[in-house]
Design brief:
This protein starts with a helix and ends with a helix. By secondary structure, the chain is mostly helical. Helix 4 packs across helix 5 and helix 6 packs across helix 7. The chain has a two-stranded parallel sheet.
């Protein structure tokens, strides 16, 4: 987005304050933002000021902008392994997004974006929460995809590891519980007990 609406590397005739409205308007007009999660647990783009600001800007238009969080195929197994080991670590690893520590190619941009974050509704913490919201939804969706894949294999008559299935139901249930989705959580946890 920024290469067309605001090119970070071209500074001629660039008003540092205009990025707030220019970028937001571009995102709303395009109505789609893609975030590539690589590696899934510490994506480099979420350490960059501009990328965090773009995701924050997209979150302001939640009903008008689709935020697509994409995990490359090479990251599916590491994500699944983490879910298998410790569901709490999944959010902990993505929850450390910090616009205070984020960097930009141009230090003036970095400073402008940080100042804009401080001045925004909720300040720096509000920006962080706005960015983490789509990530939480993505984690839920990706976790449910794993369970759906196992169930599809079972429906198709393929052998599945029942212990793995029960563990995934349990851990995704606990993940949902931690996110306050108690009804969905209870359903998966009960299903996990039946499988065991």
């Amino acid at each position: 987005v920024d290469s067309f609406s605001i090119n970070q590397r071209v500074k001629s005739k660039f008003d540092p304050d205009s990025f707030k409205s220019t970028l937001s308007n571009a995102i709303k007009t395009i109505s789609n933002v893609a975030v590539i999660m690589t590696p899934w647990n510490n994506p480099g783009n979420l350490t960059r000021s501009w990328c965090i600001w773009e995701l924050y800007s997209a979150s302001l238009f939640e009903n008008d902008v689709d935020i697509n969080i994409i995990i490359p195929p090479t990251q599916v197994d590491p994500f699944r392994n983490e879910l298998r080991k410790d569901h709490k670590q999944i959010m902990a690893k993505l929850g450390n997004i910090d616009i205070n520590k984020a960097e930009a190619f141009d230090k003036k941009d970095q400073e402008s974006i940080l100042n804009a974050a401080k001045e925004s509704k909720g300040g720096v913490n509000g920006v962080r929460e706005s960015v983490i919201g789509p990530l939480r939804r993505w984690i839920t969706k990706e976790s449910m995809n794993i369970i759906n894949q196992i169930e599809m294999n079972k429906l198709n008559g393929n052998d599945i590891d029942e212990n793995e299935y029960a563990l995934m139901l349990n851990n995704v249930g606990l993940l949902l519980h931690d996110q306050g989705k108690h009804d969905e959580s209870e359903s998966l946890l009960k299903q996990s007990l039946k499988v065991r």
